[in-house]
Amino acid sequence: MGWQERALCAQTDPEAFFPEKGGSTREAKRVCTGCEVRSECLEYALENDERFGIWGGLSERERRKLKKRVV
Ligand code: SF4
Fold first, then answer.
1. Rounded to whole angstroms, how far apart are CA atoms 1 and 18?
2. pLDDT at 69
3. Is 53 in the pocket of ligand 1 (CB under 6 A)?
4. Which residues form the 4Fe-4S Wbl-type domain (predicted)?
5. Which tens digit of pLDDT belongs to each residue from 8-66?
6. Does the annotation flag 9 for ligand binding?
7. Residue 4 and residue 7: Cα distance in Å, rounded?
8. Quick check: CB of 37 below 6 Å from ligand 1?
């Protein structure tokens, strides 16, 4: 696990990270900005093809875009 123990979102409202469609992601992204394991988190999400929620400060759509650029 490692990085997940240092995940800042674990100390906040987890629901903010899985907003309903069209819901605000602003609060989650704000938390990610101050998270020390942000890059680990984002990498994990990309590797595991996480579909839902905010990971590493990026929404599903933003991760898809990022992936397209990398591949
Ligand atoms: S980057 Fe965001 S989603 Fe990832 S562990 Fe940190 S606070 Fe949680």
1. 21
2. 86
3. no
4. 8-65
5. 999 998 899 999 888 899 999 999 999 999 999 999 999 999 999 999 999 999 999 99
6. yes
7. 5
8. yes
